Amino acid sequence: MSANFDAFFNEIQSKLGTDAVNRSDETLTRYGENTMPGGDRRPAGVVYPASTAEVQTIVRAANTHKVPLYPVSTGNNIGLGSRSASKAGQVIVDLGRKMNRILEINDRLAYCVVEPGVTYQAITDELMRRGGQLMLDVTSGPPQGGPLGNALDKGAGYTPYFDHFGFACGMEVVLGNGEVLRTGDGSIDSDKLVNWHTSKYSFGPILDGLFTQSNYGIVTRMGFWLMPRPPAVQSFHFTFPDDDDLEEVIELCRPLKMSNFVPTLFRVANDLYLSASEGQSKEYGSGKAFSTEGRRALREHFGLGAWNISGAFYGPNEAAMAPMIQRVRDHFMKSGKARYIDHEQAKSIPTLQVAINAFSGTPSLGELGLLKWRPGGGNIWFTPGTPMDGKIANEFQHLCRKIYEDHGFDYTVMNVCGARFARGLHVITFNREDADESKRADACYRAMAKAFAERGVFVGRAPLDYHDMHFAQTMPGFRQACTAIKQALDPNGVIAPGRYGIQ
């Protein structure tokens, strides 16, 4: 049975009001925009629920009229799809327009509860208004992005609370059949929910993970644990001069994280990842990757290295952290290749101030400059995870660098390093208005995805254009399980068909 869009929109307007629906040409164009090489995806319309009950109304109407929905929160998933639906012609459910309330902040137990439209900036502002005793781990992406959408897409930050889904607790979900599910202690059939956002492991199966990178339901409420704001933050930074120093850098970072001596994750960024945020490429138009000479000039101009390592300590004051800073400094400097940049120096270097902001729980716009490295607004992210083994890291660096260069792009990457695992944030910035360049960007991404999968390494998050490709890389049993869950929770397939490859 084909979708009856007119009947669907008429029902929503009748039940939720005329301002709950928007089908204007301008709106459809805006909601279809993204930075992908495959082009924009114009939706059939946009609906704006104001509550969980209204989301239920929308989902039930979608089932009646066979209309595909695509929920978004703040729509700032830049480089991965923005607000675009999986396929053109789906209806965007914009949860952020009206469902943007901070529902609770518990100062004693250090958690907050938010609706999908609440942004990192909004929570930070409210926590500061309340005295600044708590902070939320933030991304280094747009301050107007939201923690709920980021956590559900397995996003992360840099403080000890970096795992955004791991530090979430308790959610409310509208399933594909219109019924409401509460996870964790919220699943108890009671109006008194004392532990909903403090107890992750309650009676029965842990269902929360089903709603990450999937299309089984629409999350309308989520709790997040907050970190006590430290009295003082002291960052430290090191530069290494050569590309192949990555092997040594990874070997130096691992023991400091394995013992948890350094509480933050390490940001290990190459020269172009940091420099590209500060302006457009002066070599664009050559048809080649950024030159060795050009990279050297950028490093000299910004005071950077081929690799740049950032981390931070928390403590009562600077004096208390001084011995820890000295220990890390001795550790990195023993090779004779590293150059140390202290906290005060780094504050005067914009490309390193971004790291300080992230470690301090302060949203910032700094890394959005990466979008302007080349004209035309094209941007996709390739996010494989590799083990914290220096030799392996260097092998993958050489592999990716060659693929970038073969396709005429500038190798731009930051490795976010924990104890055993590093997430590689590879940025492909391209001119989306140039058909040949868009084609090469697409080919570059696919070549890297294929090469990594052949070596047993998978991506974490995936840009919209590549959901089907990555889903096809999974084992048959995984695909069958995802399909079976979809049929059970969303039998008519109305929620985001095709998201992360799940139909």
UniProtKB/TrEMBL annotation:
InterPro entries: Cytok_DH_C_sf (IPR016170), FAD-bd_PCMH (IPR016166), FAD-bd_PCMH-like_sf (IPR036318), FAD-bd_PCMH_sub1 (IPR016167), FAD-bd_PCMH_sub2 (IPR016169), FAD-linked_Oxase-like_C (IPR016164), Oxid_FAD_bind_N (IPR006094), Vanillyl_alc_oxidase_C-sub2 (IPR016171). GO terms for biological process: lactate catabolic process. Gene3D superfamilies: 3.30.465.10, FAD-linked oxidases, C-terminal domain, Uridine Diphospho-n-acetylenolpyruvylglucosamine Reductase, domain 2, Vanillyl-alcohol Oxidase, Chain A, domain 4. The keyword rRNA-binding does not apply. Keywords: FAD, Flavoprotein. GO terms for molecular function: D-lactate dehydrogenase (cytochrome) activity; D-lactate dehydrogenase (NAD+) activity; FAD binding. Residues 39-229 form the FAD-binding PCMH-type domain. This is FAD-binding oxidoreductase. It comes from Pseudolabrys taiwanensis.
